[in-house]
Amino acid sequence: MKPERLEPADLRARVSLAAEAIRASSKVPPRVGWIAHTGASPLADRWKGEARAPVRSLPGFPSTFADATFVTASLEGIPLAALEGGPALHGVASPLEIAFPVWVLAALGVRVLLLTAAAGSLDPSLAPGEILLVRDHVNASGLDPLRGLSDERLGPRFPDLSRLYDPRLREAARRAAAEGRLPLREGIVAFRTGPSLDTPGERASFRALGCLGVVHSLVPEAIAAAHAGTPLLALAAVTDAAHAEAPPPSVEGMAAAAEAARPRLAALLARTLPEVAA
């Protein structure tokens, strides 16, 4: 049985265990790591040589990943490793546990980390079903996956976050969107743990800080990517509207908006990944 909690002192050993197990079962080292908070990858139907493993079968992973799946595959000749269906902070997971797969992917040698997630809109012009390219974030949770972590063999104690969302990768995404005539907004997201939705005062505060959307995931992994030295591209599917007169979002409505965004996200990623993985 896997340990229930992941402690900072155990991180390096457990990352090594997980990476060794994945490496032993994968023929080609991945160039792209992908953490899909929106569920199954929108490009899963294009993957070749797909191998899926329940994360509960992989040593080292915290038990909070029991329902997640680890996938290795090839997309247009690009070897990738993806995690689908990981836990959320509004469950029982700690920020360190949420970010654990980032260090595993870094140990596997990925050149790029891709994060896809859902976001609530803070701007009436940013509608459900649209894609938001994350330029920066405001961590409104006060939580940091690096707290208590001092093993510099994994990364620096105080990583620089000033260029966290890689400018080169964002430019590649913008170029791919323009070439494919795909709508794409770029902006800052606010991070809260959830599961409660935002109060009017919180939304007004986030807008005043220049945020276009709110996420309940993505940021712990982004911080871990900076710590691991892995270039990061983050995209969020907008799942609810910002209009004051709009009814409160329902789980069903947000799920429908995320599904509506899948074709647009798939088209954008299909054009972006070959360039960012080169």
Notes on the structure:
The protein is of the alpha/beta class and 278 residues long. 31% of the residues lie in helices and 24% in strands. It is built from six helices and nine strands, in the order αββββαββαβαβαβα. The protein has helices spanning 11-25, 95-107, 167-179, 200-208, 219-228, 251-276, and strands spanning 32-36, 48-54, 69-75, 78-84, 112-121, 131-139, 185-191, 211-215, 232-240. A five-stranded mixed barrel has the order 5-8-7-6-9, surrounded by four helices. The protein is globular, with a radius of gyration of 18 Å. The mean pLDDT is 89.
- By CATH, the topology is Rossmann fold
Number of separate strands? 9
Query: Helix and strand succession?
Result: HEEEEHEEHEHEHEH
How many helical elements? 6
Sheet with the most strands, sense and barrel status? 5 strands, mixed, barrel
Name the CATH homologous superfamily: Nucleoside phosphorylase domain
Shape: globular
What strand order characterises the main sheet? 5-8-7-6-9
Which structural class fits the helix and strand makeup? alpha/beta
Strand-residue proportion? 15-25%
As a percent range, the share of helical residues equals 25-40%
Nearest-integer average pLDDT: 89
Count of domain modules: 1
Cα distance spanning the termini:
39 Å
Q: CATH top level?
A: Alpha Beta
C-alpha Rg (nearest Å): 18 Å
Describe, in short, the structure shown.
The protein has 278 residues and is of the alpha/beta class. The chain has six helices and nine strands; from the N terminus they run αββββαββαβαβαβα.
